[in-house]
Amino acid sequence: MSESSQHPRPAGKGRGRFSGRIGYVLAVAGSAVGLGNIWRFPYLAAKYGGGMFLLVYLILVVTFGYVLIVSETTLGRMTRKSPVGAFRSFGDKLSLRFGGWINAVIPMLIVPYYSVIGGWVMKYLYEYLRGNAVPLAEDGYFSTFISNSAVVEFWFVVFAALVFFTILAGVKNGVEKVSKILMPLLILLAIFVTIYSVTRPGAMEGVKYFLIPNLETFSWMTVVAAMGQMFYSLSIAMGILYTYGSYIGKDVDIEHSTTQVEFFDTGVALLGGLMIIPAVFAFSGGNMETLKAGPSLTFITLPKVFASMGAGTAIGIAFFLMFLFAALTSAISLLETSVSTLEDELHWSRPKCCLVMVVVMLTFGTASSLGYGVWDHFLLFGMQFLDFFDFLTNSIMMPIAALATCYLILRVVGFARMDAEVERSSQFKRKKLYHFFLKYLAPICVSIILLSSIANVLGWISL
Ligand code: PHE
Questions:
Q1: Is the CB of residue 36 below 6 angstroms from any atom belonging to ligand 1?
Q2: Domain boundaries, position 378
Q3: What is the pLDDT of residues 285-315, one digit of tens each?
Q4: Is 286 domain-assigned?
Q5: Residue 2: inside a domain, yes or no?
Q6: What's the 235 CA to ligand 1 centre distance in angstroms?
Q7: Nearest residue to 446 (alpha-carbon basis) of 73, 69, 104, 64
Q8: Whether residue 31 has its Cβ less than 6 Å from ligand 1
Q9: Class of residue 150 by CB neighbours under 10 A (exposed 0-12, middle 13-18, buried 19+)
């Protein structure tokens, strides 16, 4: 969910501003908390080693994640531009243009498949509203639903239409105001469901699996997946934070806000994991097949939890409604960023830019929604369309976008200017650490991870 009410984008009237640090933190946390925390994080953690995945993820969040959030926000505030403009402020070299565009294109590729998952959430909400809590919890419900391409496509289009409507009708602020109330409620409900889940018989095994790292479950894919998830969940390496940084005042303490955003987003991801992974153990007996269910995990597991609660329909409605708002506001921020980039860079009218995005959405979104059904024989590098777009953006493009930011700072902007910008508002407490990570760890590790995930997908190595 985003907080665009506080990051207005008044065309031609100078740049909007957040109302201070709290406004900024809420906006970034809002964009960060979405499907990534409750849908993507739990299934990746379940699939890639539980506690080991969590450990790698946490290390990445406080190292690369931290460095990249500070960098992108600082560059945004320094240049007062979105990514393409921010890179261009430092010259018109091809490498800079590429750096800006790769950051800007990523949201355009994410929003179509994000809307497909948003459609799944709507379908589940609709079924709960019709009182179908019991069938939703039955084995095989999800796989039957997902293979029915007409239904999946229908809900994708409904969700996508809602996102466009919200942006075009200018009711974005209204949606975000509502979500400001619903988000804290979602977190409270998630805490309640978590407590229920972890106290089910057999759930403790799942809690252990999720929280205690076990070296045996480590694979290189754990690192690749954790890094992609870190980018995705914190909304980094996709231009969003440049844009948000460009809206903050010179008085906002960038380090402090970054810590708060990371805390918030990781807290909700932990809740997502604790709600779902122990429940897999309790309701499916720790069946490894279910643990490896992938993108369907949340949709298979939560209905079982709700059904066993007795008041499944009411909780299902409440949960999926709030989940829908979290997804909707994140999708709005993805689409809004995409449209703004097109407007700024191509100087086209807003309706024309929206039209371009309608085409992009329909093309890639339809491929993603049909990929699990009638088009399931079309595989790209062994993946269905949705998994492919997810992999392409998170494991290939975002590392490249992150490298572009490192390059910009190391080769063009220089630490002196970065430090000065951060220090305009506060002391730069972790300056030495920041330099060290950005100079050595980030570029080297990101390159290794990137190359290995490309080699893996091309079948040169097996991770
Ligand atoms: N971080 C969001 C999530 O976890 C996804 C997102 C990325 C939303 C970028 C907006 C912008 O769901």
A1: yes
A2: 18-457
A3: 667 788 888 889 999 999 999 988 877 788 8
A4: yes
A5: no
A6: 5
A7: 64
A8: yes
A9: exposed
Q: Are 367 and 360 in contact (CB under 8 A)?
A: no
35 lines ligand 1 (CB under 6 A): yes
For residue 426, the CA-to-ligand 1 centroid distance in Å is 28
First-last CA distance in the chain: 34
Distances 266 to 41, 245, 272, 393 between C-alpha atoms, Å: 10, 20, 10, 21
Question: Which atom belonging to ligand 1 lies closest to the Cα atom of 34?
Answer: 12
CA 180 to centroid of ligand 1, rounded, Å: 16
The pair of three-digit structure tokens given for residue 367, joined into one six-digit string: 């491929």
Q: What is the CATH number of the domain that holds 301?
A: 1.10.4160
Taking 3-state DSSP, the helix, strand and coil percentages for the chain, each rounded to the nearest 5, stand at 80, 0, 20
What's the CA-to-centroid distance between 311 and ligand 1, angstroms?
Answer: 31
Task: Decide whether any atom of ligand 1 lies within 6 Å of the 49 Cβ.
Answer: no
User: Is residue 110 domain-resident?
Assistant: yes
Q: How would DSSP label each residue in 242-311?
A: HHHHTTS-TTS-HHHHHHHHHHHHHHHHHHHHHHHHHHHHHHHTT-HHHHT-GGGHHHHHHHHHHHHTS-
Region of 14 please: left (phi>0), alpha (psi -120 to 50) or beta: left
- Ligand 1 test: best mutation among 183, 241, 325, 330, most atoms within 8 Å of CB? 330
Count the domains in the chain.
Answer: 1
Residue 4: what pLDDT?
40
User: Which pLDDT value is given to residue 409?
Assistant: 97
Q: Which residues does 452 contact at the CB level (< 8 Å), separation at least 6?
A: 220, 224, 461, 463
Residue 463 lies in a domain: no
- Interatomic CA distance for residues 5 and 1, integer angstroms: 11
Record the pTM: 0.89
DSSP string, 117-137: HHHHHHHHHHHHHTT-HHHHT
pLDDT in tens, 237-280: 988 899 889 888 888 899 999 999 999 999 999 999 999 999 99
| 141: Cβ contacts below 8 Å, ≥ 6 apart | 135, 300, 303
Low-confidence ranges of the chain (pLDDT < 50): 1-13
